[in-house]
Amino acid sequence: MPLYHNEDQAMLADTATSFMAEEGNIAKQLRHWRDRDCKDGFGHGLWKQMAEELGVTGILVSEEDGGLGMGHVEAGIVLEEIGRNLTPSPFLTSSVLAATALNHGSSDLKGRYLPGLLQGDSVFAVAIDETAKHRPSRIAMRAEKSGNGFKLTGSKSFVIHGASSDMIVVAARTSGSDDDEDGVTLFAVPKDAAHMNHDPVRLVDSSVATHTKFDGVELDGDAVIGEVDGGREILDAMLRAGRVGAAAEGVGVARGAMDMTIDYLKQRKQFGKLIGEFQALQHRASHLYSEVEIARAAVIKAQQLLDAGAESAELMSSVAKAKVSRTAGLAVKEGVQMHGGIGMTDEYDIGLYMKRDRALQEFLGDAYFHANRVAELSGY
Amino acid sequence: MSDLETFRSETREWLEANCPAEMREPVRDEGDVYWGGRKATFKNDAQKSWFEACVAKGYTVPAWPKEYGGAGLSAPEAKVLREEMSRIGARPPLSSFGIWMLGPALLQFGTEGQKQRFLNEIARGEIRWCQGYSEPGSGSDLVSMQTFGEDKGDHWIVNGQKVWTSYADEADWIFCLVRTDKENKYQGITFMLFDMESEGAATKPIKLISGNSPFCETFFDNVKVPKSYGEDCPGYVGEINRGWDVAKYLLGHEREMISGAGGGDRTSAIGAAMKRHAGKTGDDLDPVFRAELAMFDVDALAYGAMGEKFLDEIKVGKAHPAQPNMMKYAGTELNKRRHELMMSAGGSRSLEWESETTDGGKPSRNWLRTKANSIEGGTSEVMLNVISKRILDLPGA
Description:
- The complex is a heterodimer of chains A (380) and B (397).
- Chain A has 380 residues and is α+β, with helices and mostly antiparallel strands.
- In chain A, 50% of the residues lie in helices and 16% in strands.
- Chain A has three domains: 7-122, Acyl-CoA dehydrogenase/oxidase, N-terminal domain (Butyryl-Coa Dehydrogenase, subunit A, domain 1, Orthogonal Bundle); 126-229, Butyryl-CoA Dehydrogenase, subunit A, domain 2 (Beta Barrel); 233-377, Up-down Bundle (Butyryl-CoA Dehydrogenase, subunit A, domain 3).
- Chain A has eleven helices and ten strands.
- A four-stranded mixed sheet of chain A has the order 1-4-5-8.
- The mean pLDDT of chain A is 97.
- Chain B is built from eleven helices and eight strands.
- The interface between A and B is large, with 44 and 44 residues.
């Protein structure tokens, strides 16, 4: 398969680009909700529009289950535009991560949660991390058998949209010890579950995440996604999808920051010249362009491998996440520096790109985590 | 089964039958590369039989039309062949500047007569070409070149000097930029073709820091270059005084070639190999070195995807025309990093300049050679200038 968008994908990209530029732009969404100190950190109205007008909230859900039955290339197209516009949106956690989990769930679970997702009425979160760094190989949170169901005890952090979600996919341990590969089970925890306590905290990019405590949260057996003790495989599928999705969003952030910076180089005058005439800046801008192109290629390669169910998708998803983290990091740092003083002001958007990038870098593993994983998967 | 799948299984069978085991080993030294030409000899029977099988099948230049010695493969078929060859590690049957550079220029700008003659000679490995571009005073500023061809009616008399002519001492013919109008900088250069055995043409190898001499200085002292080699076969490509158009087109190809677009060693990950190497010598990877290797592998694998994307896009005209400059910049910088890491992995052993264990100082000589990657064919700085101007449209670039 060639590494560019086919006709249908190019059409989706056109639609997504104009929709997100029109409805998801920084003034209308990020600044709007941030300046009102919105407790969710995103707008439910736009989420509803994404379901009804753009029709993409069920992009990874099969047609049989009422979704679009599309793949990660298509989800990535939407995410890149979310990234470019810094749109606060539950798309990545709901339509990519939680949807991937639900696709492995029982028809009962699908029936309970998918309609809300498809209609843009429900928002989902995922609770994976337990420490400040992403270490999904270690899951300490316990789920003990209790009657016909389970009792969840432990705590999770960096649960994006945790307090705003109708359901949270939680990774817990049903057997074995913290670092065991096996013995993990995924649960769909409804928002009104008793003894689940959210401590919401606003992050640097104005999104809201929670530290969530589970003090013996009782769940019925039908809250299990997939098989008991068989959650690791689904968790890995979620992580692959989420990482490649976050990488696509990161490419959008990088391109947004780069485009804004290059425009600025063509407008700002100093020493009687446009600053874009200075070779010191031209070479840095061109280096950045080169890195962004390469990062995009890594992302579309990873998306295609994921859609093809290839074994190498595991390696390439880490390559993509690591490469994009470094590249978007470069784009926002160069962006702020080349904007000079105004790059430090809240009035200009370039700083917002820097903040979003930092949060996105950390989500589901930063460049160090994924470079290390590339080494491990390569046998060194 | 789709046509492409049928083609894949046929190709697999053909390669199985025709590519000898020795030709599936990695290239170790210059002798393992077959360049063709009047002075060429085969290193062994395997090299000869692999080359001859490919010539007969059109696989020395698979994507060229059949009438010019190719196999007339479509872009997807050519990709399948590349994939199948790389799967078994098959060496290229023939390497040449004719295939990489002059061929594409002739396919774009040549007359039918030129294509019939020169492309077939290239495909069959009969003539080895070299490229006369740079001059002592014209490196990055190539268009300032001074080698001059005086118009004598049906021929030119060429005088001047070229430098960095790859393997000029082993080449049969040269494609050469010659100034034919001193008043007109860009539109005063002609892209000439002539025999290196012509009277007055001489070469002198340049010894490099690697100790090897892949490049020459090339001198032209009243060399007579005919304007025609027969019917419909001019002694120049494109139009007289418009050779810069051809050169620019070709520089694009050279940049693709140097950047290693399309895969191969230069874009692949190295961490696993370094670990095995360290294991063999009883060394461990320092954790910080391992981290650098991992970061390199991320960049190399991402660049590999970029190479694939670039080739896919170029085939359907989706790539930005200046994108080869980006590929060249990123690919050569990556290759330099790769060899720095390989030197570190080898430790004191990789310093050995002449020893059997290093096969005559391979690590250090190869490491030094890579330093030219970001100089030849346009320096990294020139590439960045071109990206600034043609892709980013920055002012005054």
